[in-house]
Amino acid sequence: MSETILGILASGRGSNMQAICNSIDAGKLHAKVGLVISDKANAKVLEHAMAKGIPCICIERKNFASKQDFEAAIAKELTLYNVKLVVLAGFMRILSSFFVNLFPGSIMNIHPSLLPAFPGLDAHEQALAYGAKVSGCTIHFVDEGMDTGPIIMQQAVPILVDDTVDTLAQRILAVEHELYPQAIGLYCDQRLSLEGRNVKII
Ligand code: GRF
């Protein structure tokens, strides 16, 4: 089977992008990162992509008259690079149904909580403020809602009494770095089947 080409969309630090690349380099994930796109010119993820010789582009929302034009520009690049799976890794924008429909069942996101708990921004802060004893991370297919798409994988992470946003985020991030390459691997091996909201691992 040929390598599945991934297109990573990210707005910031890019540690998940690096974990995905490391997993590919280690021969654990049979995929290729074809392209990294950021909507932020100064995003660290672009530096990481450049250092690895991965094509990377910045596409900023402010340069487009409408959200659809912005998303069409992203989609155009992804198509140009033959991307089969769009991987959101800290991409801080909600994609519209226009974009989602261009890549049916082929957009994944990672979120640092056990969805449907604590969606959206500041998931760690939300979990701590709520007094939850457990949080974690979720990998899901993307629909037009905010963190609402069909769940692919989840892993729980304990919340400790003296946790701060930073300590909790760190503990969850270590799990994210393991889980995201695994979920992508299942997609690449065609082991994910979507029935309504239910994702089955086959
Ligand atoms: C991660 O915590 C991810 O769950 C969330 O955004 C963060 C991105 O971190 N969606 P990084 O840019 O991959 O380091």
Describe the structure.
With 202 residues, the protein is α/β, with parallel strands linked by helices. The chain has one domain: 3-Layer(aba) Sandwich (Rossmann fold), CATH 3.40.50. Helix content is 35%, strand content 25%. The chain contains six helices and nine strands. The strands form two sheets. The protein has a seven-stranded mixed beta sheet, sandwiched between helices. Strands 8-9 form a two-stranded antiparallel sheet. The longest helix has 24 residues, at 165-188. Bound molecules: 5-O-phosphono-beta-D-ribofuranosylamine. The site of 5-O-phosphono-beta-D-ribofuranosylamine (GRF) has 13 residues, from helix 1, strand 5 and helix 6.
SSE layout:
Layout: E1 4-10, H1 15-25, E2 31-38, H2 44-51, E3 56-58, H3 67-80, E4 85-88, H4 97-102, E5 107-111, H5 123-130, E6 134-141, E7 151-158, H6 165-188, E8 192-195, E9 198-201
Parallel strand pairs: 1-2, 1-4, 2-3, 4-5
Antiparallel strand pairs: 5-6, 6-7, 8-9
Helix pairs in contact: 1-6
The structure holds 5-O-phosphono-beta-D-ribofuranosylamine (GRF).
Short description:
With 202 residues, the protein is of the alpha/beta class. 35% of the residues lie in helices and 25% in strands. The chain has one domain: 3-Layer(aba) Sandwich (Rossmann fold), CATH 3.40.50.170.
Write a concise keyword list for the protein shown above.
seven-stranded mixed beta sheet, 202 residues, 25% strand, 6 helices, alpha/beta, binds 5-O-phosphono-beta-D-ribofuranosylamine, two-stranded antiparallel sheet, Rossmann fold
